[in-house]
Specification:
The chain contains 11 helices and 14 strands. It has helices spanning about 5-25, 30-60, 65-75, 75-90, 105-125, 130-145, 150-155, 205-210, 245, 285-295, 330; strands spanning about 95, 100, 185, 195-200, 220-225, 230-235, 240, 250-255, 265, 275-280, 305-310, 315-320, 325, 335-340. Strands 3-8-4-5-6-7 form a 6-stranded antiparallel β-sheet. Strands 9-14-10-11-12-13 form a 6-stranded antiparallel β-sheet. A two-stranded antiparallel sheet has the order 1-2. Helix 2 (about 30-60) packs across helix 5 (about 105-125).
């Protein structure tokens, strides 16, 4: 005699199947819908990364091939070929004798992506505590995840900046590209003075080397000697030596030597009881830290007096505009001063 299935068990199995189907196929929120969105997002990210790479390569005068594009976006050669064909169908690229080039539509599309990326980098540098080593990586993610409206609101809140924190020009909302500034550091003669206008942020290892040497956009430098193994500089009053390879990543604006950087020191050089006049805040002080110093009155012309050094030597208490303020050595190192009695500020 065959027993009939338990109605309760059958109902439970049926309910489980219905629930599973709902989880997988539910419109907009089901697993299948989410998978499709992730796939679409990945395809869009690769497309936008490809267009951006073609734009930056063209701006640098480098031809683009399937192999160079595959390496830049991190996918196989076969998938890159398929992507290039897709870009051609969208009228974003075309193949010429020198390689893959952007059409007018492709360049306009690339400018929008580059604008988004550089606006986010400017925001991360100026309005957050995110470190310089993370600006590019985070902006790479945000450029794909946030909409145009949010980017334009950010740009407006920052006064529509023209350059990102590395010194790269930010395309306008209309698609115009501000002019690049400066000349290669290698073109300067020994003894020349200049201001750093742009630091190439790739490769990251070279960029970090320059940052560690205290070289930032806005830093003032003097080229002392350019040898085959070392480039000798004076950066914001401090002697610095960098490799010739790293020097290739620097673009500068030549300046006349007016003597304004003579006898400059860092604030942390003051001992208790000594005073100095602020000449400027260095480019390595950025974001929330820079805003705090400005709010405290650390601006050119302000006289600061070292009052008390902690037992460990860090932090140090300074008198700034009548208030006693404790600053860490890393903060004080970014404030350039001239000691009292050493010439006009």
């Amino acid at each position: 005699m065959t027993s009939l299935p338990d109605p309760a068990a059958a109902l439970t199995v049926f309910a489980a199947l219905v629930l599973l189907s709902a989880l997988v196929f539910w419109p907009e929120r089901g697993v299948a819908a989410r998978f499709r969105r992730l796939t679409d997002l990945s395809d869009r990210v690769r497309l936008e990364d490809a267009v951006k790479h073609l734009f930056t390569s063209a701006a640098a005068g480098r031809p683009s091939s399937v192999d160079s594009l595959a390496g830049a976006i991190g996918v196989s050669r076969d998938r890159t070929v398929a992507l290039v064909r897709h870009l051609e169908r969208m009228n974003l690229t075309r193949l010429e004798a020198e390689g893959i080039v952007l059409t007018d539509d492709g360049r306009a599309h690339a400018l929008r992506i580059v604008r988004t990326h550089r606006i986010w980098e400017r925001y991360l540098a100026d309005r957050t505590g995110v470190g310089p080593g993370e600006w590019h990586v985070l902006a790479d993610r945000l450029e794909h995840a946030r909409g145009t409206e949010e980017v334009e609101q950010l740009a407006a809140s920052m006064g529509h900046p023209l350059y990102d924190p590395h010194g790269d020009p930010i395309p306008t909302a209309a698609g115009d590209l501000p002019p690049a500034r400066g000349v290669p550091l290698a073109s300067l003669p020994p003894g020349a003075n200049a201001r750093v206008a742009h630091i190439e942020d790739e490769p990251q290892a070279v960029y970090q080397t320059l940052r560690a040497a205290g070289i930032n956009v806005g830093s003032r430098l003097r080229l002392r000697n350019a040898g085959t193994t070392s480039v000798q500089l004076v950066v914001d009053g401090r002697p610095v030596a960098i490799e010739p390879l790293a020097a290739l990543n620097l673009t500068v604006e030549p300046m006349e030597d007016d003597g304004s950087d003579e006898d400059l020191e860092r604030l942390d050089a003051l001992r208790p009881g000594e005073e100095g006049t602020v000449i400027r805040v260095g480019g390595q002080v950025q974001g929330a830290q820079r805003r705090r110093l400005l709010d405290l009155g650390v601006v050119p012309g302000t006289v600061i007096r070292a009052e008390l050094r902690s037992l460990s030597g860090d932090p140090v208490a300074y008198r700034i505009r009548g208030a006693m303020i404790a600053l860490r050595r890393a903060q004080a190192d970014g404030i350039l001063i001239r000691r009292a009695g050493r010439g006009a500020a």
